Amino acid sequence: MKVFVTGAGGQLGQDLMLLLQSQKIEALGCDRQEMDITDLEQCQETIGGFAPDVVIHCAAHTSVDVAETDVDAAYLINATGSRNVTLAAEKAGAKLVYISTDYVFDGMGQKPYHEYDNTDPKSVYGKSKRAGEVLVQSLSSKYFIVRTSWVYGKYGNNFVKTMLKLGQEKPLLQVVHDQKGSPTYTVDLARFLLELIQTEKYGVYHASNSDSCTWYEFTQAIFAEAEDILGLKFTAKLEPCTTDQFPRPAPRPRNSVLEHLAIRTNEFKDIRPWREGLKHFLYSLKQND
Q1: Are the C-beta atoms of 106 and 117 separated by less than 8 Å?
Q2: What separation in angstroms does the CA of 61 have from each of 83, 101, 127, 136?
Q3: 26-30/54-57 β-pairing
Q4: Which of 23, 29, 192, 263 minimizes the number of CB atoms within 10 Å of its CB?
Q5: Contact criterion met (CB below 8 Å) for 185 and 210
Q6: Which entry of 125, 152, 185, 205 is annotated as an active-site residue?
Q7: What are the tens digits of pLDDT across the range 44-71?
Q8: What is the pTM assigned to this prediction?
Q9: What angle do CA 105, 114, 89 make, to 5 degrees?
Q10: Strand 151-152 vs strand 143-148: parallel, antiparallel, or unpaired?
Q11: Which H helix or E strand runs over 60?
Q12: Are 80 and 139 in contact (CB under 8 A)?
């Protein structure tokens, strides 16, 4: 099996490439320097030249707040870019995996969202990622759309790394307690993707670590586990706050919890609980010290 990965320099892309290489799978990863996804001809040449069996499309415009004012850039990358990658994958006869987001929902529901719930994105980022989904569904004959949430890992900047740093520097940390979701560890997501691409069980999937928490509860867990595993001492007093206390340009979903209906109905093993993923991540940081 040959696998082509876009956004290979990102959080998920780097862990995905490491996993594929560890499994002795021939993989080619490209970031924006090596392939401009907004250039259809370049996508077709680069992807076609490698002749992959699978294309995993991780590249995206993920700056949620920036997207509110830079609308064209968000759609150029998340919609047009995804169209280009999809057309190139289809031309090469490859399966396509499109990484999507909990932001395609309005986030106002009381229950976890499953794959067949109606989408209703409220932010430009969410709308542009949904546009990407629609193009993938229209243009690919062999697609997996994988929606995930609250992603963190060893590579790049993320919430866990930020909290580890601020917890040791700030006297007070106020963290939102009225937004709920499922933190997702890139290593766990990458493992699920590897399992998925070896099947023909096409369709839409929700893939996050199991169970849910608020950002405040997540931070509590980060501090508790990091003290235990890394021996860190946190000086910050942790306080819950509301979304309204920290207004941001882009609206945040209050409920980002994704139900794994498609994982169950397609008989995949569910992804482990988020707290177990967090522990694994912190142990990986310890090994690097």
Answers
A1: no
A2: 14, 12, 12, 16
A3: unpaired
A4: 23
A5: no
A6: 125
A7: 999 999 999 999 999 999 999 999 999 9
A8: 0.97
A9: 80
A10: unpaired
A11: none
A12: no
Q: Place 230 in a pLDDT band, splitting at 50, 70 and 90.
A: very high
Decide: 266 and 207 in contact? Cβ < 8 Å: no
Directed axis angle between helix 81-91 and helix 40-50, to 10°?
A: 40
* Active-site residue flag, 125: yes
- Name all domains of the chain by residue range, CATH numbers in brackets: 2-158+182-211+258-273 (3.40.50.720)
Could you give the angle at which helices 81-91 and 124-139 cross, rounded to 10 degrees?
A: 20
Q: Kindly state the tokens that stand for 51.
A: 């002749």
For residue 207, give both structure tokens: 């893939």
Of 123, 105, 125, 106, the C-alpha closest to 115 is 105
Write the CA distances from 122 to 114, 126, 127, 131, 147, integer angstroms.
Answer: 18, 7, 7, 13, 16
The DSSP string of 146-186 is EEE-SEE-SSS--HHHHHHHHHHH-SEEEEESS-EE--EEH
Range 186-198 burial, b when 16+ CB lie within 10 A, else e: bbbbbbbbbebbe
Q: 4: which strand partners?
A: 28, 55
pLDDT above 90 (res 256)? yes
Residue length of the chain: 289
- For residue 279, give the amino acid letter: K
